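User: Okay, second chain of the day. Same drill as before: sequence in, structure tokens out.
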Amino acid sequence: MPTPRLEHWNADWGEITTLSIQDHLELQGYSVVRYDYPPGTRFNDHTHDVDKKDAVVSGRLKIRIGGINFILNRGDMIEISAGTIHSAEVIDDETVVSLDATRR
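Assistant: Same drill. Structure tokens below.
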């Protein structure tokens, strides 16, 4: 299993907005869909058949991969390779605005 790569928003890329993160991901060859996950949302262990990135526009999202917790804050993105078992959950009391990006 490839090591997941957590990426933090670089201020040189501009302000953190849905559109700026979406543009950043699309330039990397991803198709992007927005999801809003209310507090308490959780996804048990699952996989995807495509390489993807999850990006957080607002709120906090915990992704667990291989026994390691990755906390994604505003502007954070994580690469998840196809076939990687992972889970996710909204932490705190704020709705998470997430961009789900799949490799084209």
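The chain is about 10% helix and 50% strand.

User: Thanks, on to the next one.
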